Amino acid sequence: MTMKAMAKAAVATDSSAKRALIFSLFLVASAIIASGAFFSVYSIAQNISIHILNVDVPGFVMGLLVTYLGIRYFLLVRKLKANIYDPAAHFSWSNFKRKKTVKSR
């Protein structure tokens, strides 16, 4: 068995590890959403404002921002899950090569 075939077999048979990692990413995204929502409610109840660049920003705005970013991350994890479980997807080292960019003057 060649190294390439062994790598493909190892990647293809490790679905339980994939499921565990994707589940943990979903948990992290859910925790971010929950913490942002909690901070929004807490900020409204306690009248919290955060001083940013000489401006007082209401705390619930920051909580809404964290909630938005958590929802965005959750959707990205769903997209990642779909890409990982796509039958046409395969492992290739060429996916990790850097693309050379030409600097313009």
Name some characteristics of this structure.
mainly alpha, 105 residues, 2 strands, flat, two-stranded antiparallel ribbon, 66% helix
What does it look like?
The chain has 105 residues and is mainly α. It has a domain of 42 residues. Helices cover 66% and strands 8% of the residues. It is built from three helices and two strands, in the order ααββα. Strands 1-2 form a two-stranded antiparallel sheet. Strand 1 and strand 2 form a beta hairpin. Helix 2 runs antiparallel to helix 3. The protein is flat, with a radius of gyration of 21 Å. The protein starts with a helix and ends in a 21-residue tail after the last helix. The mean pLDDT is 85.
Q: State the helix count.
A: 3
Oligomer description? single chain
The percent of residues in helical segments reads: 55-70%
The low-confidence runs, each spanning 5 or more residues with pLDDT under 50, are none
N-end to C-end Cα span: 50 Å
What are the secondary-structure elements, in order, as H or E?
Answer: HHEEH
Rg, please?
Answer: 21 Å
The largest sheet is: 2 strands, antiparallel
Topology, number of strands: 2
Globally, the shape reads flat
Q: How do the strands line up in the largest sheet?
A: 1-2
Mean pLDDT: 85
**Range of strand content:** 5-15%
By secondary-structure content and strand pairing, the structural class works out as: mainly alpha
